[in-house]
Design a protein that fits this description.
Number of helices: 25
Distance between the termini: 73 Å
Strand order of the largest sheet: 2-1-3-5-4
Largest sheet: 5 strands, mixed
Length: 527
């Protein structure tokens, strides 16, 4: 075993310091300011609360688990929180989880480099793929957030790395299937990457054993993936029925029942607004990556990367519902596609001839000058915006208002009060002594526009009148703006309340409001 280790180290003696250097850059760019920017999203609070429920109570959710997503993503978060959370405790529970997101970011960066090498990219261009991801303001923004995609990404990249194994052994393809299953059970939308992964397996496997390799991949993927519907079946929650949630009902709702975001080409649609919000942070990584993906389709060794990007983009363009973190899983492959195309340009410029010999001929010198000029032009074009964006990501503080609001609530609000909140506050307020589930209530649970769990509605039949306080946050105001005809209970609570404390300014302000009027309140506080 020692001899094998020495052989491995000698073989990778140049890549090891490169990977360590890339990890250091990732820590610097992604880690600096990770708890302060960007502002917390409601989904982040939800996954933190679900991870807390798993670790604290052995449950899959802090409310009724209704199969909205497979649970493996927040189970991983719960495990990381137990292992490292006490060492990285932030001002809030979500801030602590943000600190932990550096671990999957490091795994993503390292595996992206390895995948680039296995696709035939030179070390410099494989490293460039990682630098493109972690230096882009959009990449920094995405890798920091507590989204399920960030827990799924390392597993999906590891599946691609195993599928590109130089040894072409059966265990590598079986391992790719297992890793991909973990990725899908962390975030179901990773299934969109299956065509690209299958193409990678077909291209890498020996023609004589290709069917066995595909069978090994499929068997391990199915055997692990089937555990999710089996869990629902054993709980009696696979098929819809009265008085319980079901997996099939949730899948049907996700595919056809939820309110769509419109077409990305429709002016003023939520989908277009979301795409524009990505490009406002950084238009280059996504734009150049998708353009490079089309070129990758024409190159055999890069074709899996191109297909991996093209399939989800085509699905997004068809309309329906476009989730906010949809771009996260695309970004590493965008960076890889850009680096792959640049590697190809460099290879064509050299023509396979040693650099010094190639440069000594007029035609070779022109080709090399063109390749170098392209790299320099792209660098000069992109770098100024990235420097400004990275500086903003590393120095801005968009999360201070929520910490201030939580501290004020802990100091001034009776623990018997009932508060309507977004999920970013849930764990902190419960830890401060407020009643879980029915004392601090996630505002989505008061309606059915994005909620198949009616437990809160049954327990609080008077709706907004059951509450003492409502906390107006950017998350709640954004949800109301996106659903003008819905969330009536939240709108009524805001309309029948008065502000008692404010933290922050402008669109990022958090306002704590006391609900007033006859026959309102939990009944636990004096009016």
């Amino acid at each position: 075993m020692l001899a094998g280790t020495r052989t491995w180290v000698r073989r990778h003696r140049l890549s090891i310091p490169i990977v360590l250097g890339l990890m250091a850059v990732t820590v610097l760019l992604v880690g600096t300011g990770i708890t302060r920017s960007p502002g917390f999203a409601d989904d982040e609070g939800t996954y933190v609360a679900e991870a807390w429920a798993f670790v604290t109570h052995g449950q899959l959710s802090h409310y009724t688990y209704w199969y909205d997503h497979p649970p493996l993503g927040w189970i991983q978060l719960g495990i990381l929180t137990e292992l490292f959370g006490p060492l990285l405790r932030g001002a809030t529970a979500v801030a602590t989880a943000r600190s932990l997101m550096l671990l999957p970011a490091l795994a993503t960066a390292s595996l992206l480099y390895v995948l680039g090498r296995r696709l035939g990219l030179r070390r410099g261009f494989s490293a460039l793929a990682v630098l493109l991801l972690v230096a882009s303001p959009l990449g920094i923004d995405s890798l920091r957030q507590v989204y399920l995609e960030n827990f799924a990404l390392p597993w999906v990249l590891l599946a691609f790395v195993l599928a590109q194994s130089p040894s072409r052994r059966l265990w590598a393809f079986a391992g790719a299937g297992a890793c991909f299953a973990v990725g899908v059970l962390s975030k179901e939308t990773m299934l969109l990457f299956l065509p690209g992964l299958l193409l990678a397996i077909v291209g890498r496997a020996d023609r004589r054993t290709r069917s066995f390799c595909l069978a090994a991949f499929g068997a391990s993927f199915v055997l692990l993936g089937i555990g999710y519907p089996l869990y629902a079946l054993l709980k009696g929650e696979l098929i819809p029925g009265p008085g319980h949630v079901s997996l099939l009902q949730a899948v049907t709702w996700q595919l056809a029942g939820r309110q769509g975001t419109g077409s990305v080409f429709a002016s003023g649609s939520q989908a277009q607004h979301l795409v524009l919000s990505w490009t406002q942070v950084d238009p280059w990584l996504l734009g150049l990556g998708l353009a490079a993906a089309v070129l990758c389709l024409g190159v055999r060794r890069l074709r899996p990367v191109g297909l991996t990007l093209v399939v989800p983009v085509l699905v997004a363009l068809r309309g329906g519902y476009l989730p906010e973190p949809f771009d996260i899983a695309l970004l590493p492959f965008c960076a890889l596609a850009i680096a792959g195309v640049l590697d190809l340009v460099w290879t064509r410029a050299r023509g396979g001839i040693p650099l010094r010999t190639r440069a000594s001929t007029p035609r070779g010198a022109m080709g090399l000058a063109g390749a170098v000029g392209l790299l320099v032009a792209l660098t000069l074009l992109i770098t100024p915006g990235w420097v400004r964006g990275d500086r903003a990501q590393m120095t801005a503080d968009a999360t201070a208002p929520i910490a201030g609001a939580e501290h004020w609530i802990a100091a001034h609000v009776n623990r018997r009060a009932r508060l309507m909140i977004d999920d970013t506050m849930y764990v902190d307020l419960v830890r401060d002594g407020f009643t879980p589930r029915y004392g601090v209530v996630w505002f989505y649970k008061l309606g059915f526009s994005n909620n198949l769990d009616p437990a809160i509605v049954r327990h609080l039949p008077r709706g907004w009148r059951e509450f003492d306080y409502v906390v107006s946050t950017p998350v709640i105001r954004s949800a109301l703006a996106q659903n003008p005809s819905g969330d009536g209970q939240v709108r009524a609570a805001l309309a029948h309340s008065r502000p008692v404390a404010r933290f922050g300014r402008g669109a990022g302000a958090i306002v704590i409001r006391r609900i007033t009027g006859p026959h309102t309140g939990s009944g636990a506080l004096s009016r």
